[in-house]
Amino acid sequence: MNSKSNTIVFWFRCDLRLHDHPALQKALDIVRNARSGLDAGTAASKDTRFLPIICLPDFLEESAWGFSRMSALRRYWYLSAVRDLAEQFDNLACPVLICPESATTALPRLAQSLNITEVVCEEIAAPFEQEEVTALRASGLLVTTVWQSSLLDPADLPWISAELPAVFTEFRQMVERAKILPPKPIAVPTSFPPRPELDIPAHLQLTLDQLVITEPTPEPRSSFAIGSGLFNGGERAALSHLNRYLNDRLPHTYKQTRNQLMGLDYSSKWSPWLATGALSARKIFAELKKFEAHHGANDGSYWLWFELLWRDYFRFLHVQYGLQLYRARGLHDGPLPDKSAHRVEVFQRWCDGETGEALIDAAMRELKSTGYLSNRLRQVVASYFIYQLHGDWRAGAAWFEAQLLDYDVYSNQGNWLYIAGRGTDPRGGRIFNVQKQVHDRDRDGVYRRTWGTL
Asked: What gap in Å lies between CA 393 and CA 207, rounded to an integer?
């Protein structure tokens, strides 16, 4: 290996795709400029190398509440996205390095032997993810981060991050009055610099054959049936599902059906792929606008934009408040959660769907069995846990993190704060009447019988 060769690393985080990838494009531009000598004050380095890396999380890591941060179903979803991306890189003659260790461990170990001159990655404005970048920089690595996960570009917003509107409705109205639209998604790279042979220790890399993925047994009751052949976590499956959803004209009925409890098509089901970054929000929006141009717009297609704006709002809240969102009291100066009120055995019964409240138990069993739950039921079970069982909202958020295929650090934290009344919601929390939800959503008992609670 030529010791003078430089290596530009692109570290994949929650962006496991090739389409619409500004951070990946930034890394490729750095390589191109280095090879052509376009970087100020540097000579051309035609042997500058490009190395894409995926560092696997610690699947056995426990939350502060005593259970794994990632269930077996969520591990499957993530690893199937990794495999799909790795296969696509292989097809482009640029194999991705799959590393079984964390980035904060692996990249400093690789830095010297590979002469890593720069690491490029997605910017994630959440505490743990910020700590990862801080640790890499403390090890001596140059790390360039690129913000890309939101639909809207923060630079296009009519306020600085510290002046984000205090409530979502005001945020949405200001965006719409100003007619702010997302940037167009960028094209998929058609080629990559060939990755030369690198002297990488065997314990720091996995081949695709070594990437063991346990296929889940299909759950016929699931509204998101992974393991059935229809869904896996990969980018190609994501784009196929997006096309199917639009081709079936389902945006037109979205607002009418979005609060249903069961079935595939009552909601878009984009969120599991958005969560791993296998699907870009800007790609969704661009295809949705094409759909509206061809089939017409209505309340349903508008409401999909509305939901994507909610996703953005939780991201921008993290940019504004960061670690404050993870305090026990959240953004409020009111009393802390009552630790004595949070009982471990009650929490466990909630997790297992054994509270004795049929709708809650059905929902929690669905969540644990499938890794998925309708948006309406997520709110109902969170409200029940906080206000009826007097549980610590942070424990509930951690359980959702472990179970949900579509766990997204921004949305999960934002939604739990919203229900607990510790975020920006002016109502000071959301309490759902379980019996009203039964009357409105499951009057015939089909959902509860499906999950064995009635």
From this structure: 40
